[in-house]
Specification:
The chain has about 250 residues and is α/β, with parallel strands linked by helices. The chain is built from 9 helices and 8 strands. About 45% of the residues lie in helices and about 15% in strands. It is globular and about 50 Å long.
């Protein structure tokens, strides 16, 4: 009940700020208040929950990067599946671009967001910096320029806000080095017709970080941090009095 009352208060504040055009401020406020609270195992959403497209990078003949006994396509799918579980536990709907070792083009991945009218798109990848490099940490990308087809839907200017909250919370969850957010017009985020981010979850070329990434518990922390960011971002966009009333019951 304590968490439930806290969530209601948080959402009421979000709605109040959103009504004043202060959604960016409310996102930071809610993040600060809830960063240390476990994601609720109940729906926070109205009758139709937001839809999140979760994209596991690479797949099939495209293995992605390989280093320190890690193949990117396998690890990205594992983290994406863990992220799906975390998001669904909060009542969100999740669409995976791939469920197994299959290949989709970048255009096909991005097109799923528009075809299913998704509310958010998250692409999961692992980073590289040359074999034996000491580079470590997590970084999150967003598109500064959206494709013409993606710009037809509202909310396309929110990529930086989305990336910022995901980046802060995934680094807080994992205690990984925070390498910040970066604007890059990568195809999957630039062409997705919704707020979209690409998360580089760590460097497999780092001997130390690759050891952590091989641990299931650490991958859970990565997925949990990303999920927190997605949930908080979506709360500032879709929170309504009806949602508050449902949570308060």
């Amino acid at each position: 009940m304590k968490f439930r009352r806290f969530t209601v208060l948080s959402l009421q504040t979000v709605v109040a700020f959103a009504a004043l055009g202060g959604s960016a401020f409310s996102l930071v406020w809610l993040e600060q208040r809830q960063a240390a609270v476990a994601l609720p195992k109940e729906s926070l959403w109205d009758e139709v929950a937001p839809l999140v497209v979760v994209d596991a990078g690479h797949g099939g003949h495209d293995g992605g990067a390989v280093a320190n006994g890690v193949t990117e396509k396998n690890l990205s799918l594992d983290i994406a599946n863990r992220l799906k579980k975390e998001l669904e536990a909060t009542g969100l709907r999740v669409l995976m671009t791939r469920r197994g070792d299959s290949f989709l083009s970048l255009d096909e991945r991005a097109a799923l967001a528009g075809a299913h009218e998704a509310d958010a798109f998250v692409s999961v990848h692992l980073n590289t910096d040359g074999e034996g490099s000491a580079a470590e940490g997590i970084e999150t990308y967003f598109a500064e320029t959206k494709s013409l087809s993606a710009r037809q839907r509202p909310g396309m200017g929110e990529g930086a806000d989305f990336a910022a909250v995901v980046q802060r919370l995934v680094c807080g969850s994992t205690q990984a080095e925070n390498r910040g957010i970066k604007a890059r017009d990568y195809a999957v985020v630039a062409r997705a017709a919704c707020p979209a981010v690409l998360v580089e979850c760590g460097f497999i070329t780092s001997a130390r970080e690759s050891v952590r990434l091989k641990q299931a518990g650490y991958r859970d922390q990565v997925a949990s941090g990303i999920a927190r960011g997605v949930v908080l971002f979506l709360q500032t966009r879709v929170a309504t009095p009806a949602v508050i009333a449902a949570v308060a019951k």
